[in-house]
Amino acid sequence: MKIGIVGAGMVGSSAGFALAIAGYANEIVFVDKNEALAVAQAEDISHAVPFMSATRVRAGGYADLAGAGIVVLSAGVGQRPGESRLELLGRNTAVIRSIVSEILAVVPDPILLVAANPVDIITHITASISGLPPHRVIGSGTILDTARFRSLLARHMEISPQSIPAFVIGEHGDSEVLAWSGAVAGSADLVSFAAQLGKPVTEEVRKAIDHDVRNAAYKIIEGKGATYYGIGAGIARIVRAITRDEGSVLSVSIQTAHVAGVDNVTLSLPRVVGARGVTADLLPDLDHEEFEALKRSARMLKDLSNSLGL
Amino acid sequence: MKIGIVGAGMVGSSAGFALAIAGYANEIVFVDKNEALAVAQAEDISHAVPFMSATRVRAGGYADLAGAGIVVLSAGVGQRPGESRLELLGRNTAVIRSIVSEILAVVPDPILLVAANPVDIITHITASISGLPPHRVIGSGTILDTARFRSLLARHMEISPQSIPAFVIGEHGDSEVLAWSGAVAGSADLVSFAAQLGKPVTEEVRKAIDHDVRNAAYKIIEGKGATYYGIGAGIARIVRAITRDEGSVLSVSIQTAHVAGVDNVTLSLPRVVGARGVTADLLPDLDHEEFEALKRSARMLKDLSNSLGL
Amino acid sequence: MKIGIVGAGMVGSSAGFALAIAGYANEIVFVDKNEALAVAQAEDISHAVPFMSATRVRAGGYADLAGAGIVVLSAGVGQRPGESRLELLGRNTAVIRSIVSEILAVVPDPILLVAANPVDIITHITASISGLPPHRVIGSGTILDTARFRSLLARHMEISPQSIPAFVIGEHGDSEVLAWSGAVAGSADLVSFAAQLGKPVTEEVRKAIDHDVRNAAYKIIEGKGATYYGIGAGIARIVRAITRDEGSVLSVSIQTAHVAGVDNVTLSLPRVVGARGVTADLLPDLDHEEFEALKRSARMLKDLSNSLGL
Amino acid sequence: MKIGIVGAGMVGSSAGFALAIAGYANEIVFVDKNEALAVAQAEDISHAVPFMSATRVRAGGYADLAGAGIVVLSAGVGQRPGESRLELLGRNTAVIRSIVSEILAVVPDPILLVAANPVDIITHITASISGLPPHRVIGSGTILDTARFRSLLARHMEISPQSIPAFVIGEHGDSEVLAWSGAVAGSADLVSFAAQLGKPVTEEVRKAIDHDVRNAAYKIIEGKGATYYGIGAGIARIVRAITRDEGSVLSVSIQTAHVAGVDNVTLSLPRVVGARGVTADLLPDLDHEEFEALKRSARMLKDLSNSLGL
Ligand SMILES: NC(=O)c1ccc[n+]([C@@H]2O[C@H](COP(=O)([O-])OP(=O)(O)OC[C@H]3O[C@@H](n4cnc5c(N)ncnc54)[C@H](O)[C@@H]3O)[C@@H](O)[C@H]2O)c1
Ligand SMILES: NC(=O)c1ccc[n+]([C@@H]2O[C@H](COP(=O)([O-])OP(=O)(O)OC[C@H]3O[C@@H](n4cnc5c(N)ncnc54)[C@H](O)[C@@H]3O)[C@@H](O)[C@H]2O)c1
Ligand SMILES: NC(=O)c1ccc[n+]([C@@H]2O[C@H](COP(=O)([O-])OP(=O)(O)OC[C@H]3O[C@@H](n4cnc5c(N)ncnc54)[C@H](O)[C@@H]3O)[C@@H](O)[C@H]2O)c1
Ligand SMILES: NC(=O)c1ccc[n+]([C@@H]2O[C@H](COP(=O)([O-])OP(=O)(O)OC[C@H]3O[C@@H](n4cnc5c(N)ncnc54)[C@H](O)[C@@H]3O)[C@@H](O)[C@H]2O)c1
């Protein structure tokens, strides 16, 4: 499948690099208002290709997106130190609006994969202005937070993160919810599982992991100015679920009719992702506290949408 | 890592083919008392290699196993139509005894991966006669039954089997236990998950899946005389967990000190598998009925061991 | 991409197993006149899937091929000990005729991938009766012989077969031609390359390799009754070139307008394979002897076609 | 295998990201004098892991390299716009000296993989000061230039770069030599191959490709400030050749006893790379002009070494 990537900054290029290494795309086209950057990224990644796959990588204009099955929206600006994800909003909304109409002029029925932050709001806007069915406008949402959650659990328990199907849901941001109570590995609930491994999830451990998942981005931004490898691989993972029509359960963000008592809100839940985009939504088993937290997260996003007149 | 495969029949060769395609082994050496067969399998698989990986594949004698990190025991005879797994026992025990001493003479500290049936008993014997620590003598156990369970659930729910971490435990055989009650996907318990997908796990569905998991081998044997691709890939999967030191949770069979009130019995549980072999065992969340079934399975295996004087 | 496999014997099932392990297909449908066999192969392979990819594997009738991008033709009968590839012809031609019309009724514009032997003749017939453009009817041809050639060279030189781009061309059979003189690795011609490695390609080595490439199938058949892993992986390799639109150079067989002075003959040359099938043919650098051998191979195939009234 | 990466800048982190995605390493440890950066890179990449492999990624001090099989040297500073590779030398030599002794104190017998520029000189120095056998101190050399060459040829001929085994040799820098005359694909020499494809390698095409290979880095640096994805994947490719003991032919730089009449000089040739490092060197077929160019490149590197008193 041909994949378009609009926004050839660190996130877009990391996604393209991951796609080329893993061989998930037949062709990648980068579009960026900074044309020299798009060309440089395409060249740099195309020099990785001879070692790995047969992916064709190049830079182009919107017209070169013709025939793409998926277009990734990674244009915008990274989070600055101290900046909240929602503060990024103003800077990114305008960018997305102009891009979406350019894409749709060339690719009438794409799956749009939104990575630009604040990803839930941008996904909401993208779905609305594109007129595409919501299940074809997929925000990366908490896919990254879920990866962080699993990565930390893996490190604590000294097992493979692939063996820990735990999820983070809600907003990709401060109000997100770690779905501890439904989390299970090896068909034992996570707490029992960890205890059996001799690595109990004490209240302290739990708090530390909760804190680290929420603050992972801030910590990375402090050290290197921005985050991009994790999300780049996350985008590649979603692309694989679509191009291989996997029906994989991934925590991604789409416009959702009802969740936790809130209507028409865009946030992340575990969802089934395949060739047609998202085909089903799942509500994890949540305890009272988690459910209330999800409600607050949904409410917050809804209020924000409302206040923006979306 | 160099991998030895003793028994170059359909199971051993399918495992070798899977290893070569996936690139999980640097070198594969087949040993079989039927030397011409070992040579033919090695040649056939080595013709697959130029398309896929740089694995070196050859046939040899026991001396050629020197330096192997893992030796797969797939010698023996396949299940005949109508034959129970336990009936195979007599035919396979003698074979294993002679093989193990040959291997240990050349590879002093291998991880042994037992596929020969009845796999739990053969694994028990292998651990005993080899004198290796039990966590380095790993039976493929219910890894295949677990795959069948996930495959059927995936088909029913129309999602990817990788998104369904459900397990089968106990004996690889008629008394095995499908651990339904701890099974969870997307952080929702399996039943709720399936219902949300509009594919409820009715009593009927459950019975059908239970029946099909238990009878998968019989059905395949009816159609093609033996089963080998599933178990071949299962062996390759265990090998990957070891060579990449993954710490993956896989349902495999090892000598276990206590399970469900039974001492020193060899059966499958979800276990953590990495470079050192099995590093931890897990008991899934089981309801009363499942626990009783596991007890019966353990009891049955124990009685059999006892009756064999093991 | 959805892949159909008509003929669920050892070759078809090995191809399906390789596809599922490598994750090159989204869906595989087996069709065989022996329905129980097709079901058994699909089940066995589907039990490999949970360890490897999200490929859906099932058995079906021709109607279930709807939507397939590629259909593999592996129906027929394997080579018996002592039987020449051409003697297989009578047994396989009739089978193919009936199958092709069934496929085209459901999939109007497939790429057909022919593995049935004698593969050059069967490919010729398939292209003719299907009315498809010749570049969409691809015989596996000498892809397997090329793999054998590289595998033997790799073993002799103790380097990776992926670093040896040598080719076998002409008939998949006794008259095939090892293109020694154009063979180059590391940008040095093969003979110089091997000498530099201290593994000279003496006349003796050359004869031994030539002999072993030509007799590989016979040797394997002696040891195990039939060959299937090599060709199964070869088919998977061609499928990858198509589904990923690679433009890879592979030695495959298609109806060719002119080669070595012979018109409209179906044999193998290195060809460029991508999403549209074969997009270009290449004539390797051949010395006089090799060119004459290719001519003889082409002539022989042409005479055979003529004698069959094709 | 455990891989150390000293220098967690863009090159080191791109290599680590590629390794984690492709699953070539069991464990990656980043060391950087900027500890916060090493931590940030390790965290960012570890969030990619749950989607891809079971690689453990973390930051540490030199002591944490204990047990590593390969240590990548990517510390130093990137090329600034307008800066020649050799001007980087002063800035990078001192860095390497201090690093090497720290590594050897912990890992007595590593394979060192040098990426720091000017890579040939730094590799020469590293081999000398480490006292390791030269075949275990491998500079990435022209592996990247070779990838660029293949990538441009692939684009021109519209075929897969994996099907074009052409090499760049000599210095990784302005004096490097494109080994056109020995280049062959599909067992036809490259020029004939391209002509057959209807994409002739005219003098103009040849000049353009030569120019673009030589100037690829400058062009990318202009657009994005530095190059890293190509070299990151190149490092991962060398790592794979070692960990899987492939015996792959790669153009890498090591101290070489004699080349083109120059003694003890460090530059790139196609070399066989496997578990023990480089096991053989190859001199491509070169025409007179190419051979003279290689001589000049070797002479230049030798003079530079001499002038530095190495
Ligand atoms: N979803 C997540 O989990 C996640 C994680 C990290 C970053 N992000 C977000 O991804 C986005 C990209 O981050 P980055 O680090 O790559 O930023 P970046 O600044 O490196 O790249 C952004 C690119 O977008 C381009 N761009 C801006 N306006 C454009 C327009 N109108 N048309 C085309 N291109 C345009 C810029 O030229 C720049 O190259 C940001 O919104 C960031 O917050 C999301
Ligand atoms: N664990 C599972 O899930 C599972 C699944 C399928 C089959 N199996 C078992 O795997 C084993 C192999 O099955 P198969 O289908 O490959 O059988 P097979 O008959 O095709 O192959 C068995 C091979 O073992 C060889 N052999 C016998 N005695 C030997 C000895 N003393 N030394 C060396 N080689 C010897 C035979 O020559 C033969 O090639 C059987 O025990 C079968 O029941 C296990
Ligand atoms: N191209 C190569 O390099 C290569 C290598 C090995 C084998 N082969 C050829 O591949 C073919 C298959 O070999 P195999 O070992 O799998 O044989 P096999 O006997 O195991 O399988 C052939 C299958 O075709 C089925 N079949 C027969 N007639 C059919 C029909 N009319 N419709 C549907 N299915 C039908 C049979 O039921 C059987 O399951 C043979 O022609 C063999 O010579 C080619
Ligand atoms: N071989 C090639 O083909 C190729 C291609 C591109 C870049 N490079 C070279 O790779 C090197 C790294 O480039 P980059 O873009 O990653 O630069 P960078 O500036 O992003 O990273 C260099 C890192 O090295 C660290 N470092 C410096 N001194 C150190 C010390 N004493 N100990 C530990 N860490 C130290 C710095 O803190 C920094 O994080 C440069 O020499 C560059 O020229 C080589």
UniProtKB/TrEMBL annotation, chains A, B, C, D:
GO process terms (BP): glycolytic process; lactate metabolic process
EC category name: oxidoreductase
All copies of domain Lactate/malate dehydrogenase N-terminal, residue ranges: 1-139
Keywords: Cytoplasm, NAD, Oxidoreductase, Phosphoprotein
Residues that coordinate or bind NAD(+): 7-12, 32, 62, 76-77, 92, 98, 115-117, 140
Subcellular location: Cytoplasm
Pathway the protein contributes to: Fermentation; pyruvate fermentation to lactate; (S)-lactate from pyruvate: step 1/1
NCBIfam families recorded: L-LDH-NAD
Protein family: Belongs to the LDH/MDH superfamily. LDH family.
Record-given protein name: L-lactate dehydrogenase
Organism of origin: Aliirhizobium smilacinae
Taxonomic path: Bacteria, Pseudomonadati, Pseudomonadota, Alphaproteobacteria, Hyphomicrobiales
